[in-house]
Specification:
single chain, 11 helices, binds zinc ion
């Protein structure tokens, strides 16, 4: 996937947010559209296809829950859409310098989550990506970076688009010549700024494997997420997986050579 502007999203959980939520909510005429669906509030400088946005985000919620057990809370999610990249940058650059390198950004402070993005052909993908981060961080007190970004990259695409993903061929080709993504290398990365295109793609590939290889792999992902959700500390996933299901990770290389996407998720029976 083209990444001219990185979407390395962020755990910017800072004072910026407090400063921002007051200023944007009182934006007066700035917002052409203000809409609400449950705990989601949308503010836009232009007239977006609001029904499509709600449908895309509901799809992410449903798939995330089914595949991983990740479930959003009722905490407020404010989605702020700018009409142009310039407008997005003007609004955010002084407050969140990291936004300038990204097409969209996710911020969280306590129970309030915010997503900032701008109108473009990839808006739906960007919103699906950022909403995945919102749900991950609502559900889990912390999330390993590879897991957080891997899930966001995975769910940013609609189910039907995943087998056609440009990343799929890259992973398959590399795996067939002996360069499969290695999880311990990804687990060592702790700063989003250290994630480049390869690291995003490799994180995505690992999530593809865990969700799609087998009921066992999916179950392992779900149980790891559940432990963190409960406040436990399962450690690095590679070590957790070796303890819980010692043969599982050895299947990853053969998955990466195929990169298949079953059409439906099997029920985990949980
Ligand atoms: Zn992200």
């Amino acid at each position: 996937m083209k990444r001219a502007v990185s979407r390395a999203c962020v755990r910017i959980l800072l004072t910026y947010l407090l400063a921002m939520c007051c200023s944007f909510a009182s934006g007066g005429d700035r917002w052409v559209v203000q809409a609400q669906r449950g705990s989601l509030l949308l503010y836009a400088e232009f007239d977006p296809d609001t029904e499509r946005i709600w449908a895309e985000l509901a799809e992410v919620d449903a798939e995330l829950l089914e595949a991983t057990g990740i479930e959003g809370t009722s905490g407020r999610v404010e989605i702020v859409l700018f009409s142009t990249r310039q407008s997005y940058l003007q609004y955010l650059s002084g407050r969140v310098p990291q936004a300038s390198a990204r097409r969209a950004i996710f911020l969280k402070n306590g129970e309030i989550s915010q997503v900032y993005a701008y109108n473009s052909r990839s808006l739906a993908v960007d919103l699906r990506h950022e909403m995945t981060h919102v749900r991950v961080h609502q559900h889990m007190p912390y999330a390993p970076l590879w897991l957080d970004e891997g899930l966001a990259e995975y769910f940013e695409e609609e189910e039907a688009a995943r087998p056609r993903s440009s990343r799929r061929e890259a992973v398959r080709w590399k795996a067939r010549v002996g360069f499969s993504p290695t999880l311990p290398a990804l687990e060592k990365i702790t700063a989003a700024e250290a994630m480049g295109a390869d690291e995003y793609r490799n994180s995505w590939a690992w999530i593809c494997f865990l969700i799609n290889d087998s009921a066992d792999s999916r179950q392992l992902l779900r149980s790891y997420v559940r432990q963190i959700h409960r406040g436990e500390a399962p450690g690095r996933f590679s070590e957790y997986a070796a303890t819980e299901n010692s043969g599982l990770l050895s299947r990853a290389n053969s998955y990466f050579r195929k990169m298949t996407f079953p059409l439906t998720f099997a029920s985990s029976g949980e």
